């Protein structure tokens, strides 16, 4: 399953967002993800993907505007984790 699909599934389950609204181009604003919900989402993503989101919610929201952006960010975190594990 792709990162985007796993992320959409997570959003539907954890934040009770209708799966039909979870297209890659959907903005966080359209999905009603504010800074408080971003904190909830960050914790859920860390648990589900085994990554650490070091950015503050405001920084993260400035960086990711759409669900596709968030998926790409999680892919970057996964790649960095894999590179770190390979270097160990």
Report on this model:
- The chain has helices at 3-14, 35-49, 57-63, 67-87.
- The protein is mainly alpha-helical.
- The termini are far apart.
- The mean pLDDT is 91.
What is the strand and helix layout of this fold?
Blueprint (H helix, E strand, L loop, with lengths): L2 H12 L20 H15 L7 H7 L3 H21 L1
Helix pairs in contact: 1-2, 1-4, 2-3
Write out key terms for the chains shown.
88 residues; mainly alpha; Non-ribosomal Peptide Synthetase Peptidyl Carrier Protein, Chain A; 62% helix; 0% strand
Separation of the first and last Cα atoms: 27 Å
Round the Cα radius of gyration to an integer and report it. 13 Å
CATH class: Mainly Alpha
For the largest beta-sheet, the strand count, sense and barrel status come to: none
Total beta strands:
0
Rough shape? globular
Strand content: under 5%
Instruction: Return the CATH topology.
Output: Non-ribosomal Peptide Synthetase Peptidyl Carrier Protein, Chain A
Task: Please provide the ordered H/E string of secondary-structure elements.
Answer: HHHH
């Amino acid at each position: 399953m792709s990162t985007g699909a796993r992320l959409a599934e997570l959003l539907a389950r954890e934040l009770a967002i209708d799966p039909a609204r979870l297209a890659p181009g959907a903005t966080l604003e359209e999905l009603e993800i504010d800074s408080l919900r971003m904190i909830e989402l960050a914790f859920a993503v860390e648990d589900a993907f085994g990554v650490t989101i070091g950015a503050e919610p405001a920084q993260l929201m400035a960086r990711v505007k759409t669900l596709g952006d968030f998926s790409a960010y999680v892919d970057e975190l996964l790649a960095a984790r894999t590179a770190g594990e390979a270097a160990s």
